[in-house]
Amino acid sequence: MTIETLGPAWTEYLAQLAEDERVGPEWTERDEVVLREAERDAEREPEMVIRLALHVGQIVALHAREPHVFVVAGTGAGKTIFAPRWMYREIERHQSEPIESQNYLVFAPSYKVLKRATLPAYIRLFHALQLGTFKRGDLVYELRSGAKVWFGSCDNPESLEGLHVRAAHGDEIGQNSVSLEVWETVRRRLAFFGGRFLGTTTPYNLGWLKQAVVDPVRRGEAKGIRVIGFPSTANPMYPREAFETARATLPRWRFRMFHLGEFERPEGLIYDVFDEGRHVVPPFAIPVKWPRYAGQDFGLKHPTGTVFGALDPRPYPDDVLYLYAEYRRSERATSDHLADIKRLAAGPLRRMWADPRSVQLIADYRAAGLPIEKGAAGPGEVKAGIQEVYTRLAEDASDGLPRLRIFRGLLPGWLDEVERYEWARDAAGNATDRPVEYADDLMDCTRYLCLGVKAHPRRALPRERPGAPEPIAAGIWTRRF
Ligand SMILES: Nc1ncnc2c1ncn2[C@@H]1O[C@H](COP(=O)(O)OP(=O)(O)OP(=O)(O)O)[C@@H](O)[C@H]1O
Ligand SMILES: [Mg+2]
Predict the structure, then answer these.
(1) Lower CB count within 10 Å: N or C terminus of the chain?
(2) Which distant-in-sequence residues (6+ apart) come within 8 Å of 478 by Cβ?
(3) 15 pLDDT band (50/70/90 cuts)?
(4) What is the mean pLDDT of residues 270-275?
(5) What are the structural domains, with CATH classification, of the chain?
């Protein structure tokens, strides 16, 4: 395959994937064709596949000693192709361990990326080395040594759960559909054997990968993690003209992300006014008199989420809502969710608003003592909620900071979602008026919360003006009550 087909600009790459038939877990004829092509490449010139001279960025990544290695590089920079070598080295390192413990994991954001890009790269190298056979039905490569490399994808979360593995590779892990939970799940699977991780991706957003991995490394706060970045042109095969055309034609942020491998904020985010420097504030002890509220989203496969907010009781525009805690967990019993939600509320909640469709769960939560009720329902409710959150993010209180603030260090999931929450696109790539369906759990909670607070204004307290004479209205006010 040529570089044009394997390393095109990101949009073309995704468009190409989108054009394919839906790719699911079952092994199809088209999957077979792709697999055969990779095998033929390996058979035709095994030496070329095995001895491909790695470029500098790939060599640095291969020799990095840290347990977690992240290659965040431009499109077509040679990320996917080098990963099977890294994995093979890990497999060799553990070959004298008990055979039943020699399990490895490779995953991609979706079956499409897995079967069209990641898996063929593994098949090419493993077939050239004649390591074993690929079991199509189970998506597992069984080495003759007995070691097993399992292939999974984020659209089938079960494929990421299960065995403890000795090493894992995640391809395109920065993609919007890959959540912080995926990274946490994979880390759990690696923890038992202290296994190593390789993540390869182009930067797509400023979500968890930047916040939880790259930024801490840059600040010198993360141990055992190495982040390696290089542009598309680090790959000697990357066509220089394509790179220059991209530089000349793409928006600057896009070129910097997809071709230089640098993090930039993509255009088109729903909460594009969000600015960590202004919206994230140091936590403080919430005064007892401030009402606490929460927004709730229920999920079975999706996580159940809660966002907790404490409201400054002063009148507009000082009615600042401080998000002080979050909860986001999947596949747990209602009683477990309830226990954690009550603990995180850290004080009595005044009201709590939830997805209005979850009638039974709302009743269950009420029965368990939470002051929960249906959030706003009906057509336009999603947009109205987004509008209210947006307004709070955009408007300032009289201290010059926004009316929605987030406690630093306490809402990592929220900060991840806000940087990935965008309008869904139609087949032609145009933004619709629906938000995407990933990175939306805590964003939904925040909609319910902000609309609820807006629809239930408390009686405004008189403005505190220390030293100023009491306005006459205050006297009237007192007499009336
Ligand atoms: N060191 C190298 N020498 C020669 N060719 C290379 C090298 N590294 C990668 N290539 C070739 O460049 C192309 C792109 O490689 P690869 O698919 O690994 O890139 P990628 O960074 O994963 O791209 P994408 O962003 O599309 O996922 C492939 O055809 C691959 O064979
Ligand atoms: Mg790739």
Answers:
(1) C
(2) none
(3) low
(4) 95
(5) 3-258 (3.40.50.300), 276-455 (3.30.420.280)
